[in-house]
Design goal:
The protein contains 12 helices and 12 strands. It is α/β, with parallel strands linked by helices and 361 residues long. The chain folds into 2 domains: 126 residues, Aspartate Aminotransferase, domain 1, CATH 3.90.1150; 224 residues, Type I PLP-dependent aspartate aminotransferase-like (Major domain) (Aspartate Aminotransferase, domain 2). The protein has a 7-stranded mixed beta sheet, sandwiched between helices. Helix 5 links the parallel strand 3 and strand 4. Helix 3 runs parallel beside helix 9 and helix 4 runs parallel beside helix 5. The radius of gyration is 21 Å and the shape is globular. The N and C termini lie far apart (56 Å). The model has no long low-confidence stretch (mean pLDDT 96).
Length: 361
Amino acid sequence: MRRHWRPALDAIVPYQAGKPLDMLAAESGLADLVRLSANENPLGPSLHVVRAIEREARAVHLYPDGGAFTLRDAIAKRVRVDPDQIIVGNGADELLALLAWAALDPGDEVVIPHPSFEPYTTVAAIAGARAVLSPLAGYETDLEDVQRRVTERTKLVVLCSPHNPAATIIRRGPLGEFLSALGPDPPLILLDEAYGDFCDDPGYPDGVGLLANAPTLLVMRTFSKIAGLAGARVGYAVAHAEVIDRLNRVRAPYNVNRLAQAGAIAALEDVEYWERSRRIVLEERAFLSRELARLGYAFPPSQANFLLVNAGAGAGAACRRLFSAGILVRDGAAVGFPGHLRISVGTRPTNQRLLAALGPR
């Protein structure tokens, strides 16, 4: 019998994003349903961004800037690199796919901390590569274990800092030592900094600053979190121009729509909103951490806009209790941490409502 689909697909579980919020609200009868399960910006979009998108909508009949020249130039000024060192994608997810298409052959190995963001292993599997999983040391990325798993077959190493879903970071010293230990012929290294804007630990390194001594490093960032553009789907990667050239060879033309590009450019211009987003998350993360600890919950110190809360055997019941109160959180079992809840940082009223519904452990 003719086989229509690639065997690699048999082992892939489709990503479950859940039903749209309005649909869930209608089905549950909870008109004030709040989503703290997707690490979205609690402030909503910047008005500067909304106006920019509204203006750009008048030209939506025209193809977008196929090379994202204006957006790349704006990003380049922000991170202080050449525009040729930047590629923009339809969310960070597309950038992962571009990297897999450009670099991975069947039989290659990809070293990935585990658990971590599910698409890392998905894109490796689709490319026919083998994911080599490096278990976390508790909630921390174990760089020594990652290094031990790098072989001559390793094409790519994936690192995530702050880590999703653990919210921990890889510190400057250990990361520098790890990169040096890979020697003169290192594999590609992807450093996912999607949540880096919310980090206030002085030991957190700026990945872009490491590029000078790491020719195979790619640093991936997103507008979804700090800029409040999750619905627009805009991510970018920074690397040496030679690396970006390879990714551009597999990038589809016009891959980022013109409304998203306009919104991202406006987001970079709205420095006040950017700083307010960071300030609110830092303040509310501290408040939520303090109050959850007072209620008897344990969790690793977060450097992201969410917390991974150990709720023990009662995690499932806590999820259901919170949903009944109109609050969605992520069951840790779905992201590799049974007995945990991944809870996004909300505004003060939302966080107070969460704490009241959750109750003591």
